[in-house]
């Protein structure tokens, strides 16, 4: 059983009283003929002082006190100053339930501060893990947990910290042993850590030791030192490949929508042009049919009207106009209508 801040037991207190009484006997040169009253008074005073001092205990803000009476669970104590029955009748165990506890694997923190120092010396057996494709990886990870039931945590199992460490190490080796080295070193660290956390919590729940896993996190995952350079080159190549794929996808997402937009615009323009040509052709057809109907009714009038309308459309675009003089057998030039019209407009 670990030391959880337990006060002195009844046997220890009795031994102290006996030792102190013997010391007083030697110092006072106790004489049986004078009676036992002075000695009893001294013993009573000592018992009262020791009992009074051992009847008080303090629970810190991040702790929970587990109170036992005659070895049986009595109650939990909240943070603050409390009293208990002395002389070993009630015992108190202080459990850090308000803190997130952390266990390190594959490395140890030597000192914390502005520059935190770590060490891996002598921890190779703990950190080296075999992957599913028979490669070896150097894994450093942490397990953070909280005590959810302090009574179960200290009495349900003999060594809770050691048990958590053993189960966590077994879960890590199991999950990593089912993955290949590429997943472990590059892409799937978060997924593997989540699997380890779920398996660890399920196992601890079966053991019922009052522990809740907060997180399992890989601190660092590297190949072993002899092949570290080669693995780093492979990792760089994988990252470069992912970068090129990302760039290609980015260009694809930029070019394809633009090409689709241009194609859609060209299609809409073609459809608009087709509608325009169709409507124009229909209009000309309707005009021709109407003209044909009028021509069939009055051919001479319609022919003359068509001739006049055509002349009205053609003559303004001519620079000079000549008229055939059938009597004189020649051409008679007329005024240049365009220049005359331009002069008139000015």
CATH topology of the largest domain: Tetrahydropterin Synthase, Chain A
- CATH-level-4 superfamily name of the largest domain: Band 7 domain
Note the total helix count. Answer: 10
Q: State the helicity in percent bands.
A: 40-55%
What pattern of helices and strands is seen along the backbone? HHEEEEEEEEHEEHHHHEHHEEH
Taking the sheet with the most strands, its summary is:
4 strands, antiparallel
Low-confidence stretches: 5-10
CATH class of the largest domain equals Alpha Beta
Overall structural class, as computed from helix and strand content, comes to alpha+beta
Task: Compute the average pLDDT.
Answer: 81
Which architecture of the largest domain does the CATH hierarchy give at level 2? 2-Layer Sandwich
Cα gyration radius (Å):
52 Å
- Overall form: elongated
Count of the separate structural domains:
4
Share of β-strand residues: 15-25%
What is the end-to-end distance?
A: 120 Å
Subunit structure: HflC and HflK may interact to form a multimeric complex.
Function: HflC and HflK could encode or regulate a protease.
InterPro entries: Band7/mec-2_domain, Band_7, Band_7/SPFH_dom_sf, HflK
GO molecular function: peptidase activity
Characterise the protein shown here.
There is one protein chain. This protein is α+β, with helices and mostly antiparallel strands. It folds into four domains: 10-95, no CATH class; 101-222, Band 7 domain (Tetrahydropterin Synthase, Chain A), CATH 3.30.479; 225-297; 302-345, no CATH class. It has ten helices and 13 strands. It has helices at residues 10-28, 37-54, 124-127, 150-155, 160-177, 181-187, 189-207, 228-297, 299-314, 337-345; strands spanning 56-59, 64-69, 72-77, 80-83, 90-95, 101-105, 108-111, 117-119, 128-130, 136-147, 211-222, 322-325, 330-333. Strands 6, 9, 10 and 11 form a four-stranded antiparallel beta sheet that branches. The chain has a three-stranded antiparallel beta sheet with strand order 3-2-5. The protein has a two-stranded antiparallel ribbon with strand order 1-4. Helix 1 runs antiparallel to helix 2, helix 5 (160-177) crosses helix 7 and helix 8 crosses helix 9 (299-314). The longest helix has 70 residues, at 228-297. The chain is elongated, with a radius of gyration of 52 Å. The model is unreliable at 5-10 (pLDDT under 50). Residues 54-235 form the Band domain. It holds the Pfam family Band_7. It is a single-pass membrane protein. Keywords: Coiled coil, Hydrolase, Membrane, Protease, Transmembrane, Transmembrane helix. It is found in: Membrane.
């Amino acid at each position: 059983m670990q030391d959880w801040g337990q006060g002195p037991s009844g046997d220890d207190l009795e031994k102290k009283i006996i030792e102190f009484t013997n010391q007083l006997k030697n110092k006072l040169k106790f004489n049986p003929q004078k009676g036992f009253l002075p000695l009893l008074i001294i013993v009573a005073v000592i018992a009262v002082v020791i009992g009074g001092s051992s009847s008080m205990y303090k629970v810190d803000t991040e702790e929970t006190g587990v109170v036992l009476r005659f070895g049986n669970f009595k109650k939990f104590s909240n943070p603050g100053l409390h009293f208990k029955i002395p002389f070993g009748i009630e015992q108190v165990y202080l459990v850090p339930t308000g803190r997130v506890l952390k266990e390190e694997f594959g490395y140890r923190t030597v000192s914390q501060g502005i520059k935190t120092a770590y060490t891996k010396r002598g921890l190779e057996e703990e950190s080296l893990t075999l992957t599913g494709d028979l490669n070896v990886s150097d894994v450093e990870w942490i397990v953070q947990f909280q005590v959810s039931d302090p009574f179960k945590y200290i009495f349900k199992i003999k060594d809770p910290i050691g048990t958590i460490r053993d189960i966590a190490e077994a879960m890590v080796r199991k999950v990593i042993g089912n993955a290949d080295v590429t997943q472990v070193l590059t892409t799937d660290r978060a997924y593997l850590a989540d699997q380890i956390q779920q398996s660890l919590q399920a196992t601890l729940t079966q053991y019922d030791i009052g522990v809740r896993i907060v997180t399992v996190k890989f601190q660092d995952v590297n190949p072993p030192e002899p092949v570290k350079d080669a693995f780093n080159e492979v990792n760089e190549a994988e990252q470069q490949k992912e970068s090129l794929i990302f760039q290609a996808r980015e260009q694809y997402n930029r070019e394809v929508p633009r090409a689709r937009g241009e194609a859609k615009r060209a299609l809409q323009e073609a459809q608009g042009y087709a509608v325009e040509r169709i409507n124009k052709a229909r209009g000309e057809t309707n005009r021709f049919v109407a003209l044909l109907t009028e021509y069939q009714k009055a051919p001479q009038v319609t022919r003359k009207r068509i001739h006049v309308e055509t002349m009205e459309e053609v003559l303004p675009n001519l620079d000079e106009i000549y008229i055939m003089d059938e009597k004189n057998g020649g051409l008679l030039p007329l005024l240049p209508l365009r220049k005359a019209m331009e002069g008139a407009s000015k």
